[in-house]
Amino acid sequence: MTISEKQLREATKGAFTIENNAGEYTFHRFAKFQEDYYLETSPRDFYLKTAATSGVRLDFRTDSGNFGFGYRIRSASSRTFYFFDIYLDGVMVLHRGEKDMWINTGRIDMKLPGGEHRITVWLPCLCAAYLYDITLDDGASFSPVKASRKMLCFGDSITQGYDAEYPSMAYTNRLAAHFDADMLNLAIGGEKFVPGILDGEFAESFRPDLITVAYGTNDWSGFERQLFLDRCDAFLEKLAEFYPDSKRFVITPLWRADKGRITKVGRFEDALAYIAEKAAACGHFVIDGTVLTPHVSGFYSDLRLHPNDLGYEEYTRNLIPQIEKDL
Questions:
Q1: Is the Cβ–Cβ distance between 223 and 191 less than 8 Å?
Q2: pLDDT grade, residue 292 (50/70/90)?
Q3: Which of 13, 66, 128, 145 would bridge with 182, disulfide CB 3.0–4.6 Å?
Q4: What's this model's pTM, rounded to 2 decimal places?
Q5: What are the CA-CA distances from residue 157 to residues 41, 292, 317 (Å)?
Q6: Angstrom distance (rounded) from CA 156 to CA 8
């Protein structure tokens, strides 16, 4: 049997809205006004990245003996690889996708052991994945897994998931799994502090228990100093205004191999200190990002900035205790 649209909506986490286009499902992690903001300000770059399915997952229980789905892939970043991770009762049992996006359609089918089991499917972080013909055995049971928390993540490429080839290993997805959260990932590769995607109506529509913010590395490397200060201030002040009851964690930028440069913003350490000071003044919890990942190039896909899967493992292992102590 093909699961219904209602069942899919109930089993999906990480999507603000879902469209059904003649049986093919599109997952939107951003609200319409946020997509429109990027369409106006960065139509050929950031707007395209809003379509990436970072943080989107299906999560349900079934006693079916078989499970499968068709997919179509579209570019939504500079990366050309895409992979799906599928978990059975919390254990990864399938990692399927392609290194090169020229193969952009396919189907995944798998046999399941007897009895009822929890199935979790993590969609790719760096492309847009559209699903269709999601099937179970005729008459099989189906029940969505409900999350105990809501979580909101803001950030740049590292928060979006560059360069995790295993999407479930990206630090935001690991946090969502660990804290049992329905997580919206509002990160965009290349982004800086962006007050334009915050507003009161959106805050009322999705009330998170937990928020993480991880901007700053692009602000330091590519902004004029005053623009960095103004946007950092505006974002952190609005975040406190719109989410007074959420636990809000600001993660300062991770170590990067080229941090010794002096940019228009100044020294890397000075930018981090400003973010930390402003975040604390706004009532956010501050986490020092420079101690979360190794200062060794082998933990980064580009040897300087973006964690690889091993780098994300270290990032998450060190980040979780920092959040737990203040939850």
A1: no
A2: very high
A3: 13
A4: 0.97
A5: 18, 16, 19
A6: 29
